[in-house]
Amino acid sequence: MPKKLMAANWKMFKTWEEARQTARELVVGVRNDLPPDREVLILPPFTALRGVSEMLVQQESFFLGGQNFYPADQGAFTGEISPDQLLDAGCTHALVGHSERRHVLGEQDDFLAFKVSFGLERGLRIIFCVGETLQERKAAQVEQVLTRQLVQGLAKVPGDTGPGELAAAYEPVWAIGTGQTAGTEDIQEAHDFVRAKLSEMFIHGREMRILYGGSVKPGNTPSIIALDNVDGVLVGGSSLNAETFSRIVLA
Ligand code: PEP
Questions:
Q1: Under CATH, to which class is 4-249 assigned?
Q2: pTM of the model
């Protein structure tokens, strides 16, 4: 059984000092009670990566990640950041395909496929996000959308990729930042489907982690995390406050 990964996506929130303070409070709040089967990942804004990294020194089971990167080593890509720069700032992980990158910033499946393979080659552990819009759910297209996103987005990933290198996050778009969590039956169905696809595509697909994201809160975490094929959570709004996120991590 993989360890459950409890990930905090701070999006475009927090100054350098606010991020350090939150990370410090989180470490103090959970380190003595963290069950051995749990890991914590913090995804701060780029400006706070180094500052948060300093808070995580020698904290076993705490990891740092980038919310995004551009698939090139260096060059004229104004406003972007490379995998090497994330690694240099102390990151081990990175998100690819978050709903806001797909729907607000227009990233398409073929570009995401390039990002995933590039990030893996450079040594980042990738969390690849998938999920349907409300319109797609109402049109009964959930499986079709998840299939397209997984098959196209992971098309360039070698079939023998290790279980620690690649994880998926099922995040229904309509549940992100809306306060509307998917029901446990819907989560179970989607996670089982993602598991089946990963198992078809990768030798280690049965061991790869699948996180759930979408309005996770302390109150709904226990029922979500107990489901089969749910190997952690990806949390936005409720991860911004150290006390609230500590309750999620320890739920
Ligand atoms: C997210 O940012 O991936 C997310 C799930 O946000 P929220 O928890 O606010 O819905």
A1: alpha beta
A2: 0.97
